[in-house]
Amino acid sequence: MARPLVAIVGRPNTGKSTLFNRLVGERRAIVEDLPGTTRDRIYAEASWGGVTFDVVDTGGLLSEQEIERASAAEIAQATQEQAELAIEQADVIVFMVDGQAGVTAGDHEVADLIRRAKRPVLLAVNKAEARNIQDAAVEFYELGLGDPYPISALHGTGVGDLLDAIIAHLPETTEAEREEVPSIAIVGRPNVGKSALLNALLGQSRQIVSSIPGTTRDAVDTEITWAGNRVVLVDTAGIRRPGRIERGIEKYSVLRSTRAVERADVAVLVIDATEPFTAQDQAIAGAIAEAKKGIIVAVNKWDLVEKDHRTMKEFTEKAREAFHFISYAPIVFISALTGQRVNQVMELALAIFAERQRRIPTGELNRVIRDAVYRHPPPTKPNKWLKIYYVTQADVNPPTFVFFVNAPQNVHFSYKRYLENTLRKHYGFTGTPIVMRFRARRGDE
Ligand SMILES: Nc1nc2c(ncn2[C@@H]2O[C@H](COP(=O)(O)OP(=O)(O)OP(=O)(O)O)[C@@H](O)[C@H]2O)c(=O)[nH]1
Ligand SMILES: Nc1nc2c(ncn2[C@@H]2O[C@H](COP(=O)(O)OP(=O)(O)OP(=O)(O)O)[C@@H](O)[C@H]2O)c(=O)[nH]1
């Protein structure tokens, strides 16, 4: 079970590391040792009142020398980047401000960012060991983050109350766990065999657990148990309804697919083996890729195809060409009618879901990327040169990587593809797009 994650964010020098050390105490020993130590985020385990959680100190995106040289705007920028990373991952955010310094403009900006994240936020007003500062903590109400917690990370005052509040705000299920039940959408042009596939799947699943009313009026999802796994099939009502709208039916099916895909983790794109690939098939595939969802291409009605030993290979090549923009998608040849390889569709969907949940430890990730950069360095021309400082996996489902670089505009698409291929070579990520973001940060030279 994934432990809930608590992130400490705030401007440099507010005392984040001091609080972190106090929270994790002896456990500091298991801190993940990351390259470029001064600016890496540090994770460790903490517990209070029998509840265990992970803490991340997002501090130190800038080194001490960098802070000395940095302008207020640069510091604000770095602090916001930390906050964004924290928001993407954390279950509870501790926003730390300096009680002795009072409210700063930068505090307001970060507060705005955090408030929008709709996560529990605790406002810790640090360095409040003196009585007058505890009183002054009320001025921090203006940040709009609720009651301030005056603390002294250095002396421990108030930290118990803050911990009580952290525990009280930890969710029953963590961000990571909420994503655990895979949802799968079956999509495709009219008449390709979506209902037939759905029925084959429902027929083979051990038991139908429930029908879940969806978000749109006529969308109903069905939860089934498949080989011991809970799986949600998205918009089963939409598939079953014979959607005979003669005019504009193709367009309608793309629209319907798009809506289902948005609510799914993995989409099964059904195409008809007896017909040539159409622009419509490609449009739906494009929408799935655009939505950053996992995808399987299921070539249906395979029972109707006259075949010899070359047929599947030739068909695969043609499909690869037609769907070149989703080269990571597995292609499977099925017959919804006879049930041939229908199981495999489900196995693949679950495997792709698992790939989407994978987290690569930061240290390892940086070693892999550093090695790839060494073997095939990015351009060094003046005005075009690119330096990758470090990379972190900011999210799962879809796997999302943030690269901190000198100049994001200098990341050529071919170099981005090289980095993506490197990630896929090491980690697979079969069937799922990978999101890669490039952010600017100042280097150390
Ligand atoms: N008076 C007082 N000083 C504190 C307290 N907590 C931290 N400090 C001091 O504030 C300074 C900054 O503390 P850090 O914990 O390094 O701050 P930080 O937010 O992690 O800083 P970065 O790593 O640069 O982001 C240090 O000199 C601490 O000793 C406190 O409760 N009271
Ligand atoms: N031979 C064969 N026929 C199939 C197969 N799958 C579906 N069909 C037939 O193809 C036709 C269309 O199948 P449906 O399942 O209704 O297709 P759909 O994609 O749900 O169609 P819409 O509701 O129009 O979107 C039906 O006559 C099915 O019996 C298959 O694997 N083999």
TrEMBL record:
One Pfam entry name: KH_dom-like
Ranges for domain EngA-type G: 4-174, 182-357
Keyword Kinase: no
Residues annotated for GTP 1 binding in this entry: D57, T58, G59, G60, L61, N126, K127, A128, E129
Keyword Iron: no
Gene3D superfamilies in the record: 3.30.300.20, P-loop containing nucleotide triphosphate hydrolases (3.40.50.300)
A GO term for molecular function: ribosome binding
Biological role stated in the UniProt entry: GTPase that plays an essential role in the late steps of ribosome biogenesis.
Name by which UniProt lists this protein: GTPase Der
Source species taxonomy: Bacteria, Pseudomonadati, Thermomicrobiota, Thermomicrobia, Sphaerobacterales
